[in-house]
Write a structure and sequence with these properties.
- It is a single chain.
- α7 (about 220-230) runs antiparallel to α8 and α11 crosses α13 (about 395-405).
- The chain contains 16 helices and 13 strands.
- Strands 6-8-7-12-13-11-9-10 form an eight-stranded mixed beta sheet, with helices on both faces. A three-stranded mixed beta sheet has the order 1-3-2, with helices on both faces.
- It has about 475 residues and is α+β, with helices and mostly antiparallel strands.
- The protein has a single domain, classed as Amidase signature (AS) domain (Amidase signature (AS) enzymes).
- This is Amidase.
- Belongs to the amidase family.
Length: about 475
Amino acid sequence: MAEPHDLTALEQAAAIRRGELSSVELVTHHLRRVEALGDTVGAFVTVTAERAVEAARAADAVPADERGPLHGVPTAIKDLTLTAGVRTTFGSAAFADFVPPVDADVVRFMTEAGLVSLGKTTTSELGCSLYSEGLVAPPARNPWDLAYTAGGSSGGAAAAVAAGLVPVAQGSDGGGSLRIPASLCGLVGYKPSRGVVSGGPLGSGAFGLPTGGPLGRTVTDVAALLDVLARPVPGEPYLPPAAPDGGHLAVARAASPGRLRIGRFTTPMLADEPVHPDCVAAVDRAAALLAAAGHEVVDVPAPLGPEAWPLFETVWYVLALAPVPPEREPDLLPLTRFLRARGATIGAGPLLAALGELQAQVRRGVRRTAGCDLLLCPTLAAPQAPVGAFAALDPAEDFDRQRRFSPYCAIFNVTGDPSVSLPVGRTDAGLPVGVLLTGRYGDDSTLIATAAQLEHACGGWDQHPAIWRAVDSANVNSTSGVGRPSS
């Protein structure tokens, strides 16, 4: 019989609706798993156990006809995301004791949807790197092999979901920060089109690069959480595309995108870097499955090339200049100080020139792939990276190695297109390998439907690492005898 954490997020909510489980039982079960495994995988900076149980009691008291698809389900909030009354460190010792007075819009939406946060997940300092190894929490480790990083900046969120500490988690993505951890940890990580998810109530929009989004084990779970996050908010700097009829969950359940033209490429875009054969093999497998599903898969040139890197690099340096109290600057990590020092030398003129040239390159790239409904490429240039592989280096070398490890994802933050990492491949050692599927701006529906179709063709992606069973059910006092629904 399945344990509660074996159920997907939607199945957990369904068990609550059928009266087989309460939200309090689910939250208590997952909190015990957090206590047992949270530090091992480096998932959480702050655990809010008492607050979570109180929220679960409130969720159980809501009338059945007022409950949404994820009502009562445990989740977690990335530590870059403002959460009123809860320590939010932004992954940094410089903010180790910061407690925001307001919720980010996405936190408010999740609370109103009846989701129950267990705490704040580990992130890279100020979201600056693609690994989550700082001073305020243990490093985020890949539950499939603890010697490897869970990635960043949503690394703790991915570690929590892949280890069965929560079924879905909120994250954000400014240069691959959802999709990189998803690829490493065998999850679905979804970056929606620019404007779909509010970044409010604070912030400048950060040139349109970052957006909030969901991480989960299945496309339907991810689509359900996206429906929660994707609520229009007046005053946002980017106009949200129209939502699909019935929501993203209905689109994922239908899994019927129609016949598409899908452009395939493996050439890295931000670096002239050899691509690991396992990453190419994962793309080949995805291409074959998509072709077997009736789509036309064609080889296309990469939309952009390494010439885009100096421009993106300039923008990333400036984005590292988040407000930090001057007296706390020495508490920042060497990489963060390096990025901020570079950013401080960039004036308004060079920044505007870089943004303008980036947009010009995006326009040229779109013309290169005109006629394609979706693009298919690797998520990363290599399947995995050990913990410490980047942070042990000189900051300049660290940053350059990150570029070479992840030369695909960030381009689609520049374009604003929806993009998802899907766990299609495996290494010989059984570690996950992701592929990146990217849609046209504003057409999240086609991307989600195709991702769900590919998931079905792969036989499902809700697979678990050995650590999933490392905690004996008797030790966590879990509720047993809860089965998956028969259909």
